[in-house]
Design goal:
mainly alpha, two-stranded parallel ribbon, 15 helices, 1% strand, globular
Length: 410
């Protein structure tokens, strides 16, 4: 990645060296490690590390600390380019995934998870920034949908291999973690060697930015992070703890989810482009509200594993509509604000994530249904916030109130 190529000149490069190709390669590299780690984690910590609900809560709290500190990306990009930081972050994620099984204790897993999480969250921060800088506004929803589909396809292959080979070849956790981490590192090596550095036409502001006119975007990010933590931490954990699903069974469930996302993501991108971010987010949050209420019903009324599995798939499909939040910000943002605001938004997204998993881990020991009830309440608040998005957001028209009160300049 030694040559610097202006973005407007990149269209003359061969397809295997273009910015959009790099975005797709990164979209594939990340889930090969992270999704495999997620698929094996709950069984690994229960069967090998003997975790309970509070332990998994603390593990995820530590995992989210780098997300809360994602604002540090603003400092890092003063010295290295965002594209380079993405490669470094993916390298950290791949290495941490590969060595996970060598640390089957609470302390060891907290350490490895912290390294993995720094890689994951810093990658996600700069990846979102690069996507919004490199993709034109009129094509962003569609391409973002295709990127979600590509990531789902990569994860689909990884999960499919686990389902087919886990019992047939009596695979070990160590082997699967090593292979998945190594595949991520191979893609990173290719990107470093084959890809030039791409220069965005809009230089990014490399300082902390918190603008009043982005307040709705910040609020939606906060609620998204709080709500999503409950699902990420406890939904799959419930499938193992309550219903006793094995590694290949949990992976089959994630496999179904991925097929659905891979097929639907491009259509969801086109839906956002045609009907707007507000309508997409309203549908997302209504769906999530219903899902979380039903999750609580599993514990209150003893509903079975098939319903729980269906809700898990539905939840992930609704989350695919989260690309609408990205394009909402792209439409209202100053071009130079994208990188610093991506870092600020990631920190806001992870404020609740620092304390919710650990705190709710203890509540889980008392009443799992109440945990999902809180998530339903968060989905309801998100729905109310989404209704404040105008049909055609743009600078100066960030919320429905803008027609009555001029938006502040900052």
């Amino acid at each position: 990645m030694r040559d610097i190529v202006p973005l407007e000149s990149a269209r003359h490069l061969p397809i295997w060296q273009r910015p959009v190709t790099l975005l797709f390669l990164m979209a594939i590299a990340m889930p090969l490690s992270f999704a495999t780690w997620s698929a094996l984690l709950n069984n690994f910590v229960i069967e090998v590390a003997q975790f309970d609900g509070s332990d998994i809560g603390w593990l995820h709290t530590v995992r989210e600390i780098p997300g809360f500190l994602a604002i540090g990306v603003i400092f890092v990009i003063m010295f290295i380019r965002e594209q380079t930081l993405a490669m470094i972050s993916l390298t950290m994620l791949g290495i941490a995934t590969a060595i996970t099984a060598y640390f089957p204790t609470m302390g060891g897993l907290l350490f490895v998870t912290l390294i993995s999480s720094i890689g994951f969250h810093y990658y996600e921060t700069v990846n979102q920034s690069l996507q919004l800088q490199w993709l034109p506004k009129d094509r962003a929803p569609q391409v973002l949908g295709l990127l979600v589909s590509a990531a789902s396809a990569a994860t689909l292959i990884a999960y499919g291999v686990i389902v087919v080979t886990w019992r047939a070849f009596d695979l070990s956790y160590n082997f699967v973690f090593i292979v998945s981490g190594a595949l991520t590192l191979i893609i990173v090596i290719y990107c470093v060697i084959a890809m030039p550095q791409f220069e965005s036409p809009n230089p990014q502001t490399k300082k902390f930015i918190l603008r009043r006119r982005y307040w709705l975007y910040y609020a939606l990010q906060f609620m998204s992070g709080a709500r999503r933590q409950i699902f990420v931490v406890f939904a799959a954990f419930m499938m193992v703890e309550r219903f006793g699903l094995d590694v290949d069974e949990v992976t089959k469930l994630m496999l179904i989810t991925l097929v659905a996302n891979m097929v639907l993501a491009p259509f969801l991108g086109r839906f956002v482009h045609r009907y707007g971010e507000r309508n997409a987010m309203v549908i997302e949050y209504v769906g999530l509200l219903i899902v979380f209420v039903a999750y609580g019903g599993i514990y209150w009324f003893g509903w079975g594993v098939m319903l729980a599995a269906g809700l898990y798939v539905a939840n992930n499909i609704f989350y695919a509509l989260a690309l609408a939040l990205k394009t909402y910000f792209q439409k209202i943002a100053d071009p130079g604000d994208i990188a610093p605001t991506a870092a600020v938004a990631f920190t806001i997204n992870h404020i609740a994530a620092v304390f919710l998993p650990a705190g709710l881990g203890y509540l889980w020991l008392v009443s799992p249904a109440v945990v999902f009830g809180l998530a339903a309440g968060m989905a309801a608040v998100s729905l109310l916030l989404a209704l404040l998005i105008p049909r055609h957001p743009e600078p100066g028209n960030e919320t429905v109130f803008s027609r009555f009160v001029p938006a502040p300049a900052e």
